[in-house]
Amino acid sequence: MSLDPDYLIHDASALEALYGRPSEASLLKEQDHLTPEYRALIEASPFMVLATAGPDGLDASPRGDSPAVVTVEDETTLMIPDRHGNNRVDSLRNIVADRRVGLLFLIPGLGHTLRVNGIALISVDPVLLARFTVAGKAPRSVIVIKIETVYFQCSRAVIRSGLWDPARHAAAASLPTAGDILAACTQGAFDGKSYDATWPEKAKASLF
User: Fold this and answer.
1) CB-neighbour burial class of residue 72 (10 A; exposed 0-12, middle 13-18, buried 19+)
2) 180 dihedral zone (left: phi>0; alpha: psi -120 to 50; beta)
3) Sheet arrangement for strand 100-106
4) How far apart are CA 43 and CA 67, in angstroms?
5) Could you give the CA distance from residue 63 to residue 82 in angstroms, rounded to a whole number?
6) Which of 114, 108, 113 is nearest to 169 (CA)?
7) Would you state the pLDDT for residue 101?
């Protein structure tokens, strides 16, 4: 596809001319700390996406935990235990190089989402790791985030997507499995069927 350069936007002034001024509410909602209301939303969220940037590129990593994905330490500090994963550590590599992070929280059943931008550090303090031990397993590290801005995002995206509507949920059987994808990426060299067959027990045993 070829894009007509005459219709491409290259600067902020062109964006402002196209979209106009932001609404009053969209500016009033932004805070530099957790209000009691924002804290309540974070503590109700079991899932969020952690966005990072570094010299090797961008990363948006899903994070989930129960009862809440993030622990609120105080009104300007969040903590994320880095649970068991695939050891790519893309997010952590980026944080080491560029401490800026963005978080997008989802709250099941709720329309609006919550966004946090801040500065992150990675701690391996044994005392801190012990706080987040689950089933006898401590996280490898804890991401500590100092909040710079926090604000809610209106519910239009969730309404348009029908995210929480069971009638619009995908039929898993109609979509490729992780094993299907791995087999396709390796032209069949990877045993995708075996991967899919063993994954449920593997995931259960390695959640933490």
Assistant:
1) middle
2) alpha
3) 57-64, 47-54, 100-106, 113-123, 141-153, 77-82, 71-74
4) 8
5) 9
6) 108
7) 98
In whole angstroms, what is the distance from residue 39 CA to residue 192 CA?
42
Q: Are 53 and 100 in contact (CB under 8 A)?
A: yes
Where b means 16+ CB within 10 Å and e means fewer, 15-46 reads eeeeeeeeeeeeeebeeeebeeebeebbeebb
| Residue 18 backbone dihedrals phi, psi, to 5 degrees | -75, -45
CB 91 within 8 A of CB 60: no
Q: How many residues does the chain have?
A: 208
Tell me the pLDDT tens digit for each residue of 137-161.
Answer: 999 999 999 999 999 999 999 999 9
Residue 98 has φ and ψ, to the nearest 5°, of -145, 110
pLDDT digit string, tens, across residues 79-110:
999 998 889 999 999 999 999 999 999 999 99
Give pLDDT tens digits for 160-183.
999 999 999 999 999 999 999 999
Output the pLDDT for position 38: 98
How is residue 129 written in tokens?
């790791």
Share of the chain above pLDDT 90, in %: 95
